[in-house]
Fold:
Amino acid sequence: MSGLESIGENKESVASNERVVSPQIAEMMKKAEERYGEAVYLRGMREHLDRVDKEIKQARINSDIDKSFEVEELRREGFSREDARRINKINRANEAYGRAIERRREKELSELTIREARDKRNELLEDRGLFHLSKEDFQKYFASTEFDVRAKMNQQNVGDCYLIAAIHALSCSPHYEMIVRSSVKRLQDGSWGVRIPLLSQRGKFIRITPNEIEPQKNPRFLEPGFLNKSSDKREVLYPVKGREGLQVLESAFMKSKFGVVDRLTVERGSASDALKVFGGDNFHWLDIVSTKIDTKIGTVEELTLASLDNDKAKVLDSVLENFDPEVLIATAATMNGPKPSLWGRVFGYPKSFQISAFNRRFFYGHAYSVSRVDSVSRMVTVMDPGDTSKPIELTFSQFKDVFSQVQAVRIDSARLLGNMEKVIEKIA
Structure:
């Protein structure tokens, strides 16, 4: 039997029999109880520390948060320096975590209010005749009955990942239905009319025929490649795989930018360019690119977002920590390729890469849509336009290690609604 257990039993015995003891013995017992209580408290605190350490392993410690307990204060209370530091660290992390949870609760409450307001707004717009596309046609051609565009939209054999990523990111916006129904109409002959930029007062009406969303023969089929690259083996060029409306948006971008629906012309580009074409003056642009410029030899080296300078890093952190789909639409892109090397020049460069502690490969020179950001767990969900049915979840740190640029637009809701009314007045 340990000394502490013996003291505990003596304490219970005294209490049950109500013995009368001398002041000296009572003082000794009081000190023993205090020592016993302190020992139990410290032991319990260590167990608590171990549990909490595991629970908040992913919680980010914010160094700016005021310390509730100073290490030296805890030291004076009998804690070891190691335990005092752990208590201080956990307290700070818990406070940061609590603030994040509070932000999430506030966001959930506001989301409910915003969703109700958004539904009411759509009802009013429909009553005023500002929608060209019925809700039934929207569900049929642009979204599934569960509004799950993501599981039914894939890039095929055309190199327009940036465009598909931009369309997918747009489909993740709560404003997607309003934007599409206000800017797209289905014509009696089966063609489509799309106003580009969407909802813009200066938008132009683009007609997309059924033939323009069909697969196209590749005029460069088996044509010799550039330098040592192999010939183009794609006999047919396919539109995005998904509902007809998504193919219409893809073709409308091509026709708006190049004057014709030619799938070869749309290969290679930037998601921000696509979002600018779609959004016009309804969007404000934000491009965060990580590069290193050597002014002596005039070269620009691509880097990952983890290598951003302090100013750009703060902007990126602000975007991630305050990401709100009500106002932001975002994509991310990887570097175009690995650093030049003799090995690569001789044997060829890899087309994909993998970061440590993450069992998935990412393509070089590829765009991904950002579908969700959780600031509490500090996780970003991205979608590969080649397979949007499988979400990719990354920590903030992994996200910065994978991607070299973030291209986002901020929705100007007031201008969005104002432009819509002006467009209708102009038509009338």
In short: The chain has two domains: 3-98, 128-427. Residues 288 and 316 are 7 Å apart (CA to CA). The chain has 13 helices and 15 strands.
